[in-house]
Hints:
Layout: H1 7-18, E1 31-41, E2 47-56, H2 58-64, H3 78-92, E3 101-105, E4 108-109, E5 116-123, E6 128-141, E7 148-152, E8 159-162, E9 169-172, E10 179-183, H4 190-197, H5 208-214, E11 219-224
Amino acid sequence: MPRFLTPGRIAALLLALTMPAAEQAAAHPHMWIDARAWLVFDGDGRLAALRQAWRFDEMSSAYSLQGLPRSADGGYAPKALQSMADDWVAALGEPQSHYFTWLRYRGRSLEFGTPAHASVQWDKTAARVTLVFELPLQTPVAPAGAEMQMEVFDPTYFVAYAFDAPGAIELDGAPRACRSDYRPPQPLDPATALRLAAIPADAEIPPGELSALTQKLSHRIGVRCP
Length: 226
């Protein structure tokens, strides 16, 4: 059985392991990710894939590594880390998760092909793991004449993302005229933040009236190529 299952379920388990029972009913999100994204173009100037790197917080990293065999240098066996990467990406492909990533162009959603180049990297100094994976488009598209928009967020609000690091968003191999525009999530007013924080820890998805609110947490990356 995949270790990760879905990010939301693992986050709930993390909460159960680390927090008193009285606090478990009101604590969202459970997992924090420092993210990077590369929008990868092919030789014909078409967007061909989305590559991402998700660096998990220390608590989530520690939980995910429990029980993994260690290597002689005190790290983790490459085979075990690769197995973890494969399990995570497979679980993220569930319809509910959809890799927490959407790509839209001219009013329609673009479909991803089979994920590629998945790996898990372990930073011993920071005690954090990073999941790297690539989502190829089923059909590469040249974003000409209209904006193509990539969105990253967790509709269930178990996982919170940040694209704060310098160079967190890059165009890889794009024509010179292409430009990206990053739009961070809308700030939540205090009342909305409290309502989201009160989602039960064992909930699979937020209640219906709150589901739309989580879309405000979307990180949007627009791309235009004249």
